[in-house]
Amino acid sequence: MNATIRQLLDTADLLIEDDGGPAATSPVTGGPATTGVGAAVPAPPTPRTATAASRYRGAAFALRAALESAVAARLTAHGAPRTIREGPMRAALLWLRGCAEAGTARRAKAAWSQLCLGCHYHQYEIGPTEEQVRAWRTEVVAIVALLTR
Q1: How does pLDDT run across 27-81, given as a tens digit for each residue?
Q2: CA-to-CA distance for 90 and 88, rounded, in angstroms?
Q3: What are 23's strand-pairing partners?
Q4: Helix or strand holding residue 9 (H, E)
């Protein structure tokens, strides 16, 4: 697993675990704000405005990007043409059948399709739930492990 995929998975974890509560940060250090006698500049609390649904959708975006990076890395390792690696993901997933086991390619396509649905916002649909995003994360980690060995 390369560093980019690891960072994307960590980002998804942060978005899933974030409780959405306010966090006070210091404008000078970027760390927790300090108040009291020795404090240089007390920082006003910075409210987080992201709702749970938007955080879960953001986690789905990060997971989808991690999966796409793993597929691209596998295709690159197997010498797939640049137009396949950098083109539409549907083409990359079709090409993946020749570079990975059929079951792994099917799992990757199914996970990618579900993540795409979770990423798109529609006014008439409820966004992905925490349980869905956690299940997608588990599946993406398993697929990435299969693609990187």
Answers
A1: 444 455 445 555 555 555 555 567 888 899 999 999 999 999 999 999 999 999 9
A2: 5
A3: 46
A4: helix 3-17
Amino acid at 111: A
3-state SS, residue 63: helix
Buried b (16+ CB within 10 A) or exposed e, 69-107: bbbbbbbeeeebeeebbeeebebbbebbeebbeeebbeb
- With both helix axes pointing from N to C terminus, report the angle between 52-77 and 102-119 in degrees, rounded to the nearest 10: 150
What CA dihedral angle connects 17, 141, 60 and 93, to 10 degrees?
A: 180
Between 11-15, 16-20, 112-116, the lowest mean confidence (pLDDT) is in: 16-20
